């Protein structure tokens, strides 16, 4: 009798274990299926910095945190399109520095195009929504170009058209400091132009005319509202988060989210730790980064060599004093908040990978299906998830193109 009971209990335990494994397997299949059906688009990464500062091979698989993006891991994450940001840090506005920024932006374009051309079986350059869909249908990742910081434009509006012709499809108007286009949200000296400058207004008008997306990440609140008042096309925040959940000037307030929705634009949630949860100011990592930022005057570099040294030091700090990263759940809290305030049609994801982005449980682009799993867990429908991952951004991209066509008539 005892043996029979023991046998039954053992059988039940085995059956329960097998049932759990089956349920997990079925859940993974559902996640994979929904993730694959969506157009997964990451609207902001800093991958080109790897291409110009080392002999980094984008076609080989690497490991985080040294690198969070490469072509094999983009396929692992079932990523349909990713924007490579042409980042140039703000420097003193001298003819020499304008020229350096211009040459660096072009070097990043050339390096990106070269590595894509060497790996046609995995990736292809995209300059339109139709390109993204076509390339995805070939089981490849579309590589798109965005410019982070309008500094390479100098004071020459014609360079907007020049960079558009080279494939650049959005410009983040400024970075961490004020430039000739507009005020930054984080310049320690405060506003300079009280929003958009006269040049900045010309730049936005020209971007509308060409069909180039205006990116409002990093810019001051006043500059944000100036852009919305001027732009005839929807805009994006390629990598920003919700200020109500993380009170950082780089993030967007609820009023800004409502205004963005009225504009028809989209905020792409940035998964860089300090924009997801307030920084833990007690950590060694935090203090080391603050010291480094002060050393380089809020990331204003005097030379390419200095910039290279700064980013090497930044990576070294994270290696020696690992940061406490937020989780996928905390990042999705920001998506929940945007949906609550603005609606499901106005939110997406821009990771800022290889520019500081990263979560404890999503360390690189291969981890993106985990975000889909969290969205499903919270009750988002498949249609909702398709909008978040790429549908909303593609809608804006098409609207920007359409407005350019209307303006040309």
How would you characterize the overall build of this protein?
- The protein has 409 residues and is of the alpha/beta class.
- The protein has a single domain (37-280, 324-408), classed as TIM Barrel, CATH 3.20.20.140.
- 50% of the residues lie in helices and 11% in strands.
- The chain contains 15 helices and nine strands.
- The chain has helices at 2-37, 48-53, 71-76, 95-117, 129-137, 158-165, 198-210, 221-230, 254-263, 273-276, 284-295, 304-320, 328-341, 368-377, 382-408; strands at residues 41-45, 81-87, 123-125, 141-148, 168-172, 213-215, 236-240, 266-269, 347-349.
- Strands 1, 2, 3, 4, 5 and 6 form a six-stranded parallel beta sheet that branches. A three-stranded parallel beta sheet has the order 7-8-9.
- Strand 5, helix 7 (198-210) and strand 6 form a beta-alpha-beta unit.
- The radius of gyration is 22 Å and the shape is globular.
- It starts with a helix and ends with a helix.
- 46% of the residues are buried.
- Mean pLDDT is 92; it is low at 11-20.
């Amino acid at each position: 009798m005892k043996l029979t009971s023991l046998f039954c209990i053992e059988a039940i335990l085995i059956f329960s274990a097998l049932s759990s494994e089956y349920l997990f397997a079925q859940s993974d299949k559902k996640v994979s299926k929904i993730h694959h059906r969506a157009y997964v688009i990451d609207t902001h990464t800093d991958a080109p910095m790897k291409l110009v500062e080392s002999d980094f091979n984008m076609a080989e698989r690497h490991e985080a945190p040294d690198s969070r993006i490469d072509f094999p891991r983009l396929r692992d994450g079932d990523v349909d399109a990713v924007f490579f940001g042409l980042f140039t840090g703000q420097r003193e506005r001298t003819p020499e520095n304008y020229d350096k920024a211009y040459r660096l932006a072009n070097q990043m374009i050339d390096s990106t195009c070269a590595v894509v051309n060497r790996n046609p079986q995995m990736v292809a350059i995209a300059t339109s929504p139709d390109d993204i869909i076509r390339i995805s249908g070939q089981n490849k990742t579309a590589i798109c170009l965005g410019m982070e910081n309008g500094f390479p434009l100098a004071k020459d509006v014609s360079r907007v058209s020049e960079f558009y012709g080279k494939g650049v499809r959005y410009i983040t108007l400024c970075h961490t400091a004020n430039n000739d286009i507009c005020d930054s949200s984080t310049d320690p000296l405060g506003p300079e132009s009280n929003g958009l400058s006269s040049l900045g207004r010309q730049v936005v008008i020209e971007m509308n005319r060409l069909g180039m997306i205006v990116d409002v990440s990093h810019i001051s609140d006043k500059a944000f509202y100036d852009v919305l008042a001027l732009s005839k096309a929807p805009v994006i925040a390629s990598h920003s988060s919700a200020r109500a959940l993380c009170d950082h000037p780089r993030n967007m307030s609820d009023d800004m989210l409502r205004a963005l929705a009225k504009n028809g634009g989209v905020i792409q949630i940035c998964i860089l730790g300090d924009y997801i949860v307030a920084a833990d100011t007690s950590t060694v990592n935090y203090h080391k980064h603050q010291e480094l930022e002060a050393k380089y005057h809020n990331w204003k570099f005097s030379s390419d060599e200095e910039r290279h040294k700064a980013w090497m030091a930044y990576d070294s700090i994270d290696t020696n004093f690992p940061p406490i990263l937020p989780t996928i759940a905390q990042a999705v809290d920001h998506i929940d908040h945007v949906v609550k305030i603005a609606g499901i049609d106005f939110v997406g994801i821009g990771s800022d990978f290889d520019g500081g982005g990263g979560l404890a449980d999503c360390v690189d682009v291969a981890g993106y299906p985990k975000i889909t799993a969290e969205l499903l867990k919270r009750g988002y429908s498949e249609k909702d998830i398709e909008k978040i991952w790429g549908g909303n951004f593609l809608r804006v991209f098409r609207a920007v193109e359409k407005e350019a066509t209307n303006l040309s008539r």
